[in-house]
Amino acid sequence: MTSKTKVKQWAELKLAGNECFKTGQYGEATRIYSLAISELHKSSKSNVEDLSVLHSNRAASYLKEGNCAECLKDCNLSLELVPFNVKSLLRRAAASEAQERYRLAYVDYKTALQLDAHLVAAHEGANRYTFVFVLFVLVFKNIRTVLLSRLSAAPPQRNGIARNHDLAAEEDLRRAGLLKEEGNALVKKGAHAQAAEKYTQSIFHYGKEAAAFTNRALCYLALKRYHDAVGDCGAALAIDGANVKALYRRAQAYKELKEVKSCIRDLNKLLEVEPNNTAAIKLLQEVQQK
């Protein structure tokens, strides 16, 4: 096979992968992009930009499948080849966000904005965490200062430090619960944007409760921020893999995003957990009829 034929083959595979991605066949798209990457590596005229794009495209497929670990690997490979590939930065940010690596996600969103100030997804992502990180820095700087002053003034007292740590953790839980309740009250009033902010603050204090993510996903659905809803449901499912609300709300978001296969997959998984869930059955029938 000549070098020219190989170039044609990987390029055709890339186009085929793109078509599969557009129709929601993410698993097949991943497979085809992998073949294209393999063919491009064999080519004597291997182009780093083309290779970067292929890794970025496969990362997008992995992200749609919920395989954040592989998505991150491909984004890293893509960015090693072309350091300022905006799509790879956004995809890595989304995968980091789904894995609750919020600081890493924030850095990628801000980097993307430096490259293109008009990116809506990057603006939304950066804005979600600007308040959180400012608060984080202020709070923990204060805690560090207090602890250092106490440790330098007195001999170590491990039990006392442990008690202080437990009290701080309890206070975080209490504050997270109060903020979540404030968010719930705002949802009942239809103030979804304000409620989403309350849930964000609640997650900052305690980010291991699935309900805060599913509640914020509900707000994002009302605000038509469907990609954000998918991300929050993914975070909830990372905590509780059988969370019915997360599966249903992600299915709703996928439906609005025209990602039919992903929608059906989540509904089928939900019905394995709750076979008689009428809302899921109704939505599944509605999606399958289209």
UniProtKB/TrEMBL annotation:
InterPro entries cross-referenced by the UniProt entry: CiliaryAsmbly_MitoImport, TPR-like_helical_dom_sf, TPR_rpt
Protein name (Swiss-Prot/TrEMBL): Translocase of outer mitochondrial membrane 34
Subcellular location: Cytoplasm
Keywords from the UniProt entry: Cytoplasm, Repeat, TPR repeat
GO MF term list: heat shock protein binding
Alphabetical list of SMART domains matching this protein: TPR (SM00028)
Lineage of the organism: Eukaryota, Metazoa, Chordata, Craniata, Vertebrata
Repeat positions for TPR: 244-277
Domain of life: Eukaryota
A GO BP annotation: protein targeting to mitochondrion
UniProt key word Iron-sulfur: no
Cellular component, GO annotation: cytosol; mitochondrion
